[in-house]
Structures are given as structure tokens and as C-alpha cells.
Design brief:
- By secondary structure, the protein is an alpha/beta fold.
- The chain contains 16 helices and 12 strands.
- An 8-stranded parallel beta barrel has the order 3-4-5-6-8-10-11-12, surrounded by 4 helices. Strands 1-2 form a two-stranded antiparallel sheet. The protein has a two-stranded antiparallel sheet with strand order 7-9.
- The radius of gyration is 24 Å and the shape is globular.
- Bound molecules: D-xylose and calcium ion (2 copies).
- The site of one calcium ion (CA) has 5 residues, from loops.
Length: 448
């Protein structure tokens, strides 16, 4: 991608140029301390490992509003005369931001990119207009689309769900929207297409036919897959698990739930998972847990990088600055062999109290540095002999003899009984948990 920042008719971030790498000693808030795009770690550059993306929704629509009050930030691109003009200006501001920050990818929902019209056809026309402009900006800057998606949760018509709505006419509307969003994603060369089922769930079991809704969901996803493939989409479809919020229960609860659903409906060949940190914690897991479950299933597709607030059970979407989380996430990513066509998308919003224009840059720089540091530490961890050997040694009894026969499914319960009866009481083999946890802390603070 180009190193020259893009500026449209207006410069939206005056006084801020391309963000440089200044290294660990730098005190400059508008410089990277750890993310050095071309630095090679474990055979690939940091840029190739991390594949950072900026999202259009929180970063360019988010003004700091919360359920208790309105926004606290006014952005110039929101002040245009018409919604379409605002969309054009927002897109130019976004590409200026992407290129100054130096990220290779971006992500959007259909109605972050273009305003919803007052009919299906009007919405399609708005989206087509904005897709054409976005295509030009991508060509001018070299920034690429990590994924597109359709917003099936904001409009009141989706209050009872999109693909799982009990009213067929709403399901049809959701289909129209996903069709147009897939067209847009293909036109922009998107690597992935995301389904986050914000309202695909229920508020009350008494009025919900959960079996029918889940069947409708699978049918809808199958039709979306078939349409996408028919228009030449060669990328990965992604499901983004989340257990709740806004619904009481969301069907895509967590990585293991979605894995079972995809396999049950024969969708695992086309679909993978987009794991969001804050969604994993909402489901009672850690970020690393859901990444690991997705990776174990061969379904780790992409990451929404953010964090929750450990003191509340809410999707706060804060910028990811927790080093333990970043290290643990990157250990899973390295062990999984990388993110493939996925990336690390900052689905994160500035705090309501962060009101300076530069805060948008500072927040993303911090997230990028956290994952760059996480990558460096994770590389030290996964290449450390003590870490590498620990798990191998724990399971060594399955590598040969009766253990290996058990793994092959060749020993029944009666044979297990006879082997146990002939053997003495199993020795206790320490799990060495503290030893490995200490090692990771040691490696967190050793030299790069
Ligand atoms: C909301 C989700 C959403 C998806 C895309 O909680 O994170 O932003 O990533 O629809
Ligand atoms: Ca997300
Ligand atoms: Ca979220």
C-alpha cells in the first residue's frame, strides 16, 4: 500500500501526518512504539501477521453517545447538507485516517457506508453510489476491504430479528439487504463477509419457536452462501459469536456453539468464525478461550480486537490495551498458523470522555502497539522449548502403545478395565501450571 496519506477536498485531520514508528523510547503519542510494519517476526512482517483493519461504524459514526446521553464529539464529516454528502465526506475522512495510520484494511456495514433509503431500491442505489466511490478510494490508496456486512439490527423492523424474524416479510427484507451487501463486498474485493446476528435470538422463550428460528437461520445462511458464490465471492463467510445484547439470548452464543451449528448444517466448508474479545468475555469465557476453540475446529477466520470492562457484563468495546489478552491471543494465532484471509479489526469505540480529534489516532495506535508487542512475546513463547515441550510431554502416554491404540478407537471399555486392573495406581504427574504461567511473564519482559 502507498505510504502517502490520502487527502480529499478537505483535510479532516490537519496537523497529523503519517504515523511513524519511533520505537520503545519514544514519548510521542502520535508514533508507534512497537508496531513496525516491515519488521520480520517468525518469517513474516508485522503487517502480514496482524493485518489491521479500521471499522467505519465506531470510528467514523461514533460520537460518544450512550444510553444516558448524546454524543460528546462533533466531526466535520457529519455536518454535510444531505446524508449522501455526509457519507461521501465520511468516506474521505476514513481513507485519510486509514492512510495516515498505515492500516492495510477497512470494514463496513452497508448503512455505515451509505444512508438507508426509503425503499429497497433507494437503499440499493445509495449503496451502489458509495461503493463506486469507495472503489476509487481503494484504488488510489491501496487500502483493501477486510470484510463487509449488513446491518440487520438497527432499523425497528428488525426488532424481532433479521433472518430469524417470526414475520416472513422481514426475513425477505433481510435477504434483500444481505444480497446488496454481498454485491458491495464483491465489488470492493472483500476478503470476507461477516454475519453478526445481533437480533438473531430471543427475548422470551414463551413466544418463540426456537427450533423454527434456528432452521430459518441455517436456510438463510445457506442461501446467502449460494448467492455469494454465484456472483464470484471467493472469500470466507464469517459468523461472529456473541451470547446476548441486544437480545436476551443470541443463537451464535460462542465459538463452540457456532462450530456445532455450522457442522450440523453443512456450512463449515464456507464459513469460519470472527472472534470478538468483548463477546467472548460476555459469554463467560476469555478472549483466548474462544480463539482457541475456533482454532481447534479449524475455523479461526478473523478477529474483532477490543476489550470489555471486567467489572460489568456489558459490551463496552474499549480499545484493546491489555497485554495479557494480546499475548494470549497472539499465542493462539501463531499456533494456528496465522489469520489467513482474516485480520485484526478494531471494533472499538473511543470513550465518551475522549473528545479530541487526535484521540481517534491515539486509540488505534495503542491497539496496534498492544498486538505488535503481543506478537513479539507470543513468538518468544511458542518458540521456547519449555513451552513447546510441556504439552507434548503431558500427552506423551498417547503417542505409542495402548494410549495410541485408544486414540485410534481400538480399545473398548472392557479392555480399558483389564489394562487398569493389571496396572498399579497411576502416578500423579504435575500439570506445572504455575511454571508455565511464570515463563510467560518472564518472556513478556525479556528483550525483543
Ligand atoms: C456488535 C458487533 C458488530 C459486528 C458487525 O456487537 O460487534 O459490530 O462486528 O455487525
Ligand atoms: Ca464485532
Ligand atoms: Ca461488540
Amino acid at each position: 500500500m502507498t505510504q502517502t496519506p490520502f487527502t480529499g477536498d478537505t483535510e479532516y485531520f490537519p496537523g497529523i501526518g503519517a504515523i511513524p514508528y519511533e520505537g520503545p523510547g519514544s514519548d510521542n503519542p502520535l508514533a508507534f512504539k512497537a508496531y513496525d510494519a516491515d519488521r520480520v517476526v517468525a518469517g513474516k512482517t508485522m503487517a502480514e501477521h496482524l493485518r489491521f483493519a479500521v471499522c467505519l461504524w465506531h470510528t467514523f459514526h461514533g460520537t460518544g453517545n450512550d444510553p444516558f446521553g448524546p454524543g460528546t464529539r462533533e466531526y466535520a464529516w457529519n455536518a454535510a447538507a444531505t446524508p449522501l454528502d455526509a457519507a461521501r465526506q465520511r468516506l474521505d475522512a476514513a481513507f485519510e485516517f486509514f492512510t495516515k495510520l498505515g492500516v492495510p484494511f477497512w470494514c463496513f456495514h452497508d448503512f455505515d457506508l451509505a444512508p438507508e433509503g426509503d425503499s429497497v431500491a433507494a437503499s440499493e442505489a445509495n449503496l451502489a453510489t458509495m461503493v463506486e466511490l469507495a472503489g476509487e478510494r481503494q484504488t488510489e490508496t491501496g487500502v483493501e476491504l477486510l470484510w463487509g456486512t449488513a446491518n440487520l439490527f438497527t432499523h425497528p423492523r428488525y426488532m424481532n430479528g433479521g433472518a430469524t424474524n417470526p414475520d416472513f416479510s422481514v426475513v425477505a427484507r433481510a435477504g434483500a439487504q444481505v444480497k446488496a451487501a454481498l454485491d458491495a463486498t464483491v465489488a470492493l474485493g472483500g476478503r470476507n463477509y461477516v454475519f453478526w446476528g445481533g437480533r438473531e435470538g430471543y427475548a422470551c422463550l414463551f413466544n418463540t419457536d426456537t427450533k423454527r428460528e434456528l432452521d430459518h437461520f441455517a436456510t438463510f445462511l445457506t442461501q446467502a452462501r449460494d448467492y455469494g458464490r454465484s456472483i464470484g465471492f471467493e472469500g470466507t463467510f464469517l459468523i461472529e459469536p456473541k451470547p446476548m445484547e441486544p437480545m436476551h439470548h443470541q443463537y451464535d452464543f460462542d465459538a463452540q456453539t457456532v462450530t456445532g451449528f455450522l457442522r450440523h448444517h453443512g456450512l463449515a466448508g464456507d464459513f469460519k468464525l470472527n472472534i470478538e474479545a468483548n463477546h467472548a468475555t460476555l459469554s463467560g469465557h476469555t478472549f483466548a478461550h474462544d480463539l482457541r476453540m475456533a482454532a481447534d475446529a479449524g475455523l479461526l477466520g478473523s478477529i474483532d480486537a477490543n476489550r470489555g470492562n471486567p467489572q460489568n457484563g456489558w459490551d463496552t468495546d474499549q480499545f484493546p490495551t491489555d497485554m495479557n489478552d494480546a499475548v494470549q491471543a497472539m499465542i493462539v494465532v501463531l499456533e494456528a498458523g496465522g489469520l489467513g484471509a482474516g485480520g485484526l479489526n478494531f471494533d472499538a469505540k473511543l470513550r465518551r470522555e475522549s473528545t479530541d480529534l487526535e484521540d481517534l489516532f491515539i486509540a488505534h495506535i495503542g491497539g496496534m502497539d498492544a498486538f505488535a508487542r503481543g506478537l513479539l512475546v507470543a513468538d518468544r513463547v511458542v518458540s521456547h522449548p519449555r513451552y513447546r515441550n510441556l504439552r507434548a510431554e503431558r500427552y506423551a502416554s498417547f503417542d505409542s502403545g495402548d494410549g495410541a491404540a485408544f486414540e485410534r478407537g481400538e480399545l473398548g471399555l472392557a479392555q480399558l478395565r483389564d489394562l487398569a486392573a493389571a496396572a498399579s495406581e497411576p502416578a500423579r504427574i504435575s500439570g506445572k501450571q504455575e511454571r508455565v504461567e511464570n515463563l510467560i511473564n518472564d518472556l513478556m519482559f525479556s528483550e525483543d
